[in-house]
Amino acid sequence: MWCFLKMMLFILTFRINTGAFGRNIFMNPESKMNISQIISHWGYPNEKYDVVTEDGYILGLYRIPYGKANSDKSDQRLVVYLQHGLFTTASCWISNLPNNSLGFILADTGYDVWMGNSRGTTWSRKHVRLDTNSEEFWAFSFDEMAKYDLPALINFIVNHTKQEEIFYVGHSQGTTIALITFSTMPKIAERIKVFFALAPVFSIKHIQIPVVKIAYKLKTLILAISGKKEFLPNNSFKQFLSSTLCPLKIFHRICHNILLIMAGSHSNNINMSRLDMYMVQNIGGTSVQNMIHWSQLLNSTQLKAFDWGSPAQNILHYNQKTPPIYNVSEMSVPTATWSGGKDLLADSEDVKNSLSEIKYHIYHKTISYYNHLDFLFGLDVFKQIYLEIINIIENNI
């Protein structure tokens, strides 16, 4: 069976390379680059660091220290940290053209931009002692991202830049782990000047994204196929589908629809010429355990820690029979939020629930036609969100 599939893949590749399907859509060269190469491709300076968490995961942390027009290295700049969401990576902040990518926009505005990668994603698949193929490596969910990843990354940035406070921008799961970290670790929360939450996810009782519901219904099957390891890894076959098939006109609409399954309803607000970038760079994978954790929250309006499956296991991990509930109202960080009316992951009812838990809420905006990915890739995202982020930063210096 495997030999047959390889033969079919060879024939398909041959027909593509010989023009049998017609390459009618431009392929962006950055789609095959790593994050450092993408930054350099557009003429920006970049730095890359490996940050080791308390439990031994090695996270890729990327920096754009300044923009094209403000390269005076002697200036101390305000620090803005960007945290991606579920399935994406730090490259989501630089996947569009420079005038529509938040990472580049902030650098050109004069800020010191840092972009982290959660454990298990494309650029954070190392550990000081665990093999990436081991089940032990993948035994994590967003609990560990909040408990270990975010504190390690934020402390590293603060120590490196010598700045006591930084601005935090999170998208989707990047808001979830921030809510947990900032409400349970006051010392980390003290380092955050303002928390900008794009498509905030606190509870998912009303979620309509199929992949999470499928993970819940087919949990046993997923565990049988994937084991207790990774979910949607950014492997070579997926790279082939995204970078070789998606640029072909015959497959373009199919790839677009796949992307929208993760985002929400159809939108004319996405730059279709960047589709290969969105598909290749921003499907970074996660753990099966993380997907199971999300599926455990489907019928709840509360944000809870991972349920290990039995009272005995929960007692072992939490010293109580049931997973603890995160009290987000304990968070003291000033928070600005943006939500989308067409967002099937951060549903408007769930967002309303999360906003009621945020004590220091300084701003909210609902964009009626935005789906989950418009916050990253929308054609008008600069006007709708990014310019407002910059204005809030300037008013909180």
Strand content: 5-15%
* Category from helices, strands and their pairing: alpha/beta
Q: Per the principal axes of the C-alpha atoms, what is the gross shape?
A: globular
Query: How many β-strands, per DSSP?
Result: 11
Main pleated sheet: 9 strands, mixed
Helix fraction by DSSP (H/I, runs of at least 4): 25-40%
Residue-averaged pLDDT:
85
Outline the secondary-structure elements.
Elements: H1 2-17, H2 35-41, E1 47-52, E2 57-64, E3 79-83, H3 102-109, E4 112-116, E5 126-127, H4 142-161, E6 166-171, H5 173-184, H6 186-189, E7 192-198, H7 210-217, H8 219-226, E8 230-231, H9 236-245, H10 249-261, H11 275-281, E9 286-287, H12 288-296, H13 311-318, E10 335-340, H14 348-355, E11 361-367, H15 374-377, H16 381-394
Parallel strand pairs: 3-4, 3-6, 6-7, 7-10, 10-11
Antiparallel strand pairs: 1-2, 2-4, 2-5, 8-9
Helix pairs in contact: 4-5, 7-12, 9-11
